[in-house]
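Good morning,

Both structures are done.
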Amino acid sequence: MRTARLVLIVAVLLAAVWLGLKEGLDGIRDAETNGQRLAGGFQLLYGAAAVASLAALVARASWFRVPFGLCAVAMTATAALAPVVWGGTTWTVGVISGLAAAVIMGLVYWAAVAHFRPSAR
């Protein structure tokens, strides 16, 4: 179970690194409005925070919560903003999207806390 949990955490964080850094740079480059630039900035932020989260995870560092929390907040903000500023949807859709991202990151955090807990053998 520990291995499956770790694979899930690493997969989500690696996806966040790629989507945050690569797509964030593309988003900022293609942005035409301040909202799009803000969404791209949050995307870059969660990508960079995901890199730090992976480093802390590998090191089993106690400061994992700081970059992961930053990653989760920035990802939630991006998920809420992007459908509105890029897709032209309503803020209701943006809020639902942001809440979905927050739930997913909450589950990943829960898995990470369980991973850090010493195993009972």
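Second structure follows.
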Amino acid sequence: MSRAKLPRKPRKDFPLFPHARGYWAKKVLGKLRYFGKVADDPKGKVALAKWLDQKDDLLAGRVPRAKKVDGATVRDLCNGFLDAKKALVDCGELNPRTFAEYHATCKRVGDAFGWDRPLDDVVADDFDHLRRAIARLWGPVRVGNEVQRVRCLFKHGFDTGLIAQPVRYGPTFKKPSKAVLRRNRARNGKRMLEAHELQQLLGAAPTPLKAMILLGINCGFGNTDVASLQRRHLDLKNGWVDFPRPKTGIARRCPLWPETVATIHEALAQRPEPRADKYKALVFITPRGNPWRVSEREDRDGQFHLKTHDYIGKQFTDLLKQLGLHRPGLGFYTLRHVFETVGGASLDQVAVNRIMGHVDDSIAENYRERIDDARLQAVVEHVREWLFGIEETK
């Protein structure tokens, strides 16, 4: 809504103002809060009532909550859940991408159940209908993830007192069984690239992408890993990378092949000037000066949005298609599958897990204080021999 079309305040002492985006708004403790669309409430009566209802909580820095459990709605549940998760994003404890997935789940629940539906009116049939709807759209893996997020949402409602008793989901609102997941995986085919296919990719890839592919095969790096990699993580002189997984923070250490070190040097020599100071530490920069994988976080109209631009995945898929190697399910992340599959044949799964950054919940892990570098070196040399046909260094 243009400023010329915005209405004036109903009176001079009216506590809210019409924001340029078309919402009644107020800045509280340095943050904009929105109280409904101006077009739907030109006099601001509903917005004022909402402000007065939330005023004490907002001024105290608290998340506004429904006043009575009996009156709590699906909207109250979703808003409270997202406010709690957004606080974790703001302090760096939750990945923005994970928050975006929670946000999308809340929207699906609200649209399916009804935003103003009382929580004590939600029954097992509602969850059954929701699961049937998402199962028609997605495969079993994604359905399982969505079921888990919905359960997390309603558990939050019970834990915070919005829901008086544990939710009864019914007998069908469960993750797909392991048998279903196995059949689906068999139907889709293996997410694997063989050595001769990887050699074709390396021979055709431009320098930056070639270095990323080598990191994927050499160290089991995924899209976010190579896009987030910083120079401080690399010891190119001695051929090592120490880089905790961005997703989980689990420590990883991996020896680098000579081919990987040489190609990273080439990529750094050709590296464009970063577009912003915050990108200067990154190893890989696009020709336009941006990271190769960007998640843009936006707060629009009081709601959170996340747009991800994955240039790594796009270029890798384009290269697969160019070489006639593309198959459903294959992408840059397939390289993690390659490293795990081939590295496992080295018969040292503990060292493979250390390089991959996998969680090890075994009792032995509680007693293990270190893993010798020689074991890590043996794993990557095994993968190198498989890829290039080079004899392992003794």
